[in-house]
Amino acid sequence: MKYIYELHKTMVARNLILVYEGEFTQEITKSVLAMAERNMDAIGEDSAVKRKVFNVMVECLQNIVKHSDEVNDINYTDKNSAVFMIGKQDDKYIITSGNPITNDKVEMLQEKIEHINSLDKEGLKTYYKDKIKKSQGLSAKGGAGLGFIDMARKSGQKLQFDFEHINENISFFSLKTIIRRNNQ
Amino acid sequence: MEVINLESTEDTPKIILDRNNGIFEISGRSLPEDSAEYYQPILDWLDEYSKNPNPETVFIFKLEYFNTASSKLILDILSKLETIENTTISWFYHEDDEDMEEAGSEFSDLVEVPFEFKTY
User: Fold this and answer.
1) ipTM tops 0.85
2) Chain A contact for B10, CB < 8 A?
């Protein structure tokens, strides 16, 4: 039973206000959003901060939902399982997610996020407008790759990420986004 | 023409498209799982409306939040409205919501339709 206490200690040490591990669907997304919103309302969080956190959460959660389909075909035990966490500190919220992705996505994702991280505020704005214009008429499911750009814009900080190699088919993709409290 | 009147839900906005009463409004939150599917009836309705529009169309966006997948569809809606003469967009944002104000101003750069910005 010690793991319960260990898990509790980790959550307290990292100021995690919400952790969800398991399958991700739109229904789960809505529940997680509602819980985080209630939590922020309860402490009277600043509405601008609240909106930014909500925004980043939505993109993060819907990304996981979207990509879980791709991993589904592959023989991997925890294929449907991903993790999502929100940490709250005095000066910031930390939104993290981890989910399995197919290895052929690693390079593309890395390049995409590194490119986003190389841009400043104006650069991100231009990139966003450019992407959304090009996405017109396309019937692609999801946001035409706008999600990460939006997360970076709302955060105002670099996106932190990592890939953990699991096997020849799958890697674990971790992503961390920070939202400053106290008006940046 | 039929009236579209969709009540808002946790993840979809309230939408009213009523040509006889001159009400065209999308308000609330938009983060559906499949935004393309969700907005298709709206785009179809606008296609029909554009064939014989009212002399004047004021389309209201009063969004509290939308995800990036919806932003693509909002641009699709704006592009349809672009083809309808005498159309104005009323873009509402909460007075302390700079991101929503900026989003509106970015959309206004992308289409040739006049935008009016209003706070609520």
Assistant:
1) yes
2) yes
